[in-house]
User: Fold this.
Amino acid sequence: MKLSLRHWLPATVAGLLQATAAFATNPLIVDQFTADPTARVFEGKVYVYPSHDIKAPPGYKGKPNWFVMEDYHVFSSENLTDWKDHGVILKQTDVEWADPAAYAMWAPDSVFKDGKYYFYFPAIAKTGGFRIGVAIADKPYGPFKPEATYIEGVKGIDPAVLIGKDGSAYLYYSLDKIFVAKLKPNMLEIEGEPIVFDYLPKKGLQEGPFVFERNGLYYLTYPHVANKTERLEYATSTSPLGPFKHAGVILDEAESGCWTVHHSILDYRGQWYLFYHDKDLSPAFDKNRAIRADKLFFNSDGTIRKVTPTLRGVGLVDAKSEIQIDRYSATSGAGVAVSFLDEANPHAGWKTTFSAEKSWVRFNEVDFERGGQKSIAVRAKAPGGGALEIRLDKHDGPVIGRLQLGRGAEWNIASGVTSSVPAGVHDLFVTQGGAELIEVDWVSFR
Ligand code: FUB
Assistant:
């Protein structure tokens, strides 16, 4: 998993590759926990501002088994495949008004206005209770300088800011229900009293608002506990201040049972995306989350089609990279299982286990560029030996590689020749050649 093209490349080249993480799949970030992603397009790239779950540090005195969040990172990508971690942009001890030991740096947002980037974040104030603060930067990746005080008149979490067509800014936030307040042109104070959207479906917590405008319609999207856990719903209005009319569900409750599902929605180069989180890296504890992205589509009447969460995600995968087939697009079902490579370290990624004859996984959208690749490599473990067959585009598509795997209890890289790979983007079918149990980490082409 991850960046270890080392097996294939000279050490110097492999070293350079470690600057960015190329996953293209879900979750987007694997080397740390991330949650509550707000994605924005700045300077032609996608910047994702998530919050940052961590394990409780020694001496932590907060609520047990709860969110522990002390800082924020920002990540950027031009192609939704290679994500750059710009490092910590703000931490609880930088914020004068915030309790420096509360570990409550919850879901943030960032917007650009009049040459400055405004980063809105919730934290527990020294005076008690959640408040919303602002930090300002000249660049989307900081350095962000926090204001000395929080926004007066606002009590709550999950800030999200909309800059309307006329340049006016609106701050949405939540405290069991969703509120909006118009921001003054200085972006640091509100005008008048906040309005509460108490007319939305009344039963169950509503939080994490995210509002965007499309074709003159404002979409208020938000997590709502309609049944057991949060699902994403939306409501629409012709005004940023509402009233909003409930319009449907964007994402069902997570199958994993993750209780929260904070999100954002954006249009990047003509395609809409939903950024959200699940608990891929921490199946047993849903306060250590991981951010994801999937494509989102509108119907011709402006309604939003329900999003199907995927492991495959949204980025194009380079055939030369270590293709993580455990982030598959489809499988044969029986005989295919995905598990952590190292149960003690989820950040090391996953492996695919094939255990039934002819079981297979499909992995969509691999970029073979000009085609003509000559070799194929697989990092695999085959205790009793075995074989893998790789086909293009269809279950019975052309075979581009057959690999014999030597018998052994250790991970090995098996390589062989590949034939007739046509140029362009193709789907891969990786099929177990026989009935022997085979574990696969990745597949790669050169
Ligand atoms: O990440 C902490 C909190 O969990 C967020 O602020 C909520 O939206 C929920 O995702």
Remarks:
- Residues 11-17 form the longest helix (7 residues).
- Helices lie at 11-17.
- The chain has one helix and 31 strands.
- The chain has two domains: 5-20+316-445, 35-296.
